[in-house]
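note to self — DONT lose this again. spent like an hour looking for the file last time. sequence + predicted structure for the chain T wanted, 734 res
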Amino acid sequence: MRSINYQPQFYLDLRRWRWRQAFCLFLGTALPVVVQAAEPPESPLNPTTPASSVDDGDRKKSWTLAPITVSGSREGYTATTSSSATKTDTPLAEVPQSVQVVTRSMIKEQDMHTLGDVLVNVSGVRPTRPEEALFTQPIVRGFPAEIYMNGLPAFGGTAASIDPTSLVGTERVEVLKGPTSALYGGGIGAPLGGLINVVSKRPEAEPSATVSLRTGSFSTVNPSLDVNTPIGENIAARLSADYQENDSWIDHVNGHHWSVQPSIAFQLSPDTELLLRGHYEERSQLEYSGLPAAQALSGQIDRNAFPGATNGQPQSTISNRTTTAELKHEINDDTRLTLTAQYYEGKTRDYGSFVYPELLGASPATPTVYPIFKLYLPSNIRENTLDANLGTNIDALGGRHELLVGVNHDTTHFYSAVSGADLIGELDLANPSYGLSYGATPELLVSQTNRYQTTALYVQDQATYGRFHLLGSLRLSQLELEQKEQGVDATYHRVTPRVGITYDLTDSVAIYAAYSTGFRGAFNFNGRETPKPELSRNYEAGMKLAFTDLGLSGTLAVFEQTRRNVATPDPDPNYSILGYSVQSGEQRARGVEADMVWEPIPALSLLANYAYTQAEVTEDNSIPVGDGLPRVPRHSGRFAARYRILDGVAKGLGFGAGITALSSRELTLPNTVSAPGYALLDAQASYDFDRYTVSVSAVNLAGRKVFETYQYLGSPLVLPTQPRSAYLTLTARF
């Protein structure tokens, strides 16, 4: 902990004025002139004062700043509270659910730049690769999970809708394990396996600016900036942005992305705050479709081969535009109202070329020479979401209750289409001689026009009776599903409860047990009957540790989760050949998880996680019972450490390393081939001096040549893991 005295005031005011002037010029606004500084406001916009501890009598109306002494400490890897699990600011030790938080400090020190990088620090989670985001979702505890941004959905059919292109504007990532339908939903329903909530940075009272340039392997160039400033009285603004272009370890694959995330907060009154956020991004890359698994794993083909056209194939693009408004009003010391509205618009244009052995494979005489097909997959999404909730604290029935009641409405319009798979030539993947031409964009053959509308009412009570903490949530949902081309027009009603109890064994150890349910619409279901919603349920028990004096915190959990009404091929071959399905499948995941963080001293942070997950088919028409679910390893875990030198001649140096390991994973259902397990080593180092930081990081430090599972049109495919790579980042703070 250190104390910073902002004196002499003239120089601080001059520096603040310059940053505010630059930011206002960027926004095209006039800069207010401050003649005399006043006390800093104690408001939700001021990061030095938690919103929950602000007293109405102490609130100030001015945003101008005066000479003060601020005491602070380095943010660590440990998070003590979460707002995602209950939509209230609740200590994690009291939440009867496994909730893991990856803090900004961890994101920065491990040099993470994608959501997949972040999620390896959480047990039981299998993230998507950016290259496959159009075709799949992240997995939590064996089942599909959804990505939310600041507690709100963006469709949810695939990760492409809201998987952040950049983490430059991310404050932390919170992972809720198990179904979360009691409080969340929208688009096609609610998460079945878990929820990954990406929490954005927000405007703050203190002006600051960070500019970075990252470069390294595969011609990566990645400038970024994060600028925060107060603008006039009771207004603060922030702008986070970055751009990246890069090649790849895979032949001919290259891409770029950009992200712009503006936000502005208005303190409308001492009790009312309005926060406006924008998240606008685009990524573009030559589409990669994966390698045939059996031959890639046996070394028969070039692991870095590009299985497609290298002449004239347009880059695939994903464009996401999200605009959010959040109004918070404190009615009194115990009651608060929150209104949130979001508009999301997404557009993808997927131009692919690929091998498809299920349609036409290699000849036995030339087993590595594959026919190459081309494909075009466009889609458009528009989603409007509104959530309103009222929370209050009361003493009743001998205990302390935190009540929450809310309504939610979501309307999503989804359009997608697919062309025919046109043959464009052959390619020897063992010794590729590139030159195939993509040609004209193929004509669209099949389209899908869907509309999903969800309206829900939810209530929740968090009650404390001495050492007991009780949680009960209930959500009544109405889901209207329209699939124009299939003639489907159905309405579903579902009540999804969640109950849990936590008991404090000591001030540092608690045990808990919980039950929760999930409810989700059938996404693009094609069958002879009206689709039913997919359902899930989760039983969970565990222990929570919070030894603040030792710096040790974590969660141990055991669980059983079941997913029902899973789509399986129609048993009638006359319909299955047309791609028809029936919803008669059931899947189950059982396991044990451990997530621990130990920070015994400010200089040292240790993270360890482990998951044993047995995810398998329990009922199906055609898939053998007992087959393992794709992409889910039986064993997985990570250990990471960071050491910082805080004094002496080497002050400012920091070193870190981590190892991520997992066992084999199945690629498809039914199981035909699996990708072997592996262990990968990463490392980081940095040096802070004055207002600057120089950092280096390494990926796959041992240079392991292994493969990841890969999703593309349901074929058994793999992706070569990123080889040994290194990056240098230069950062300046103002």
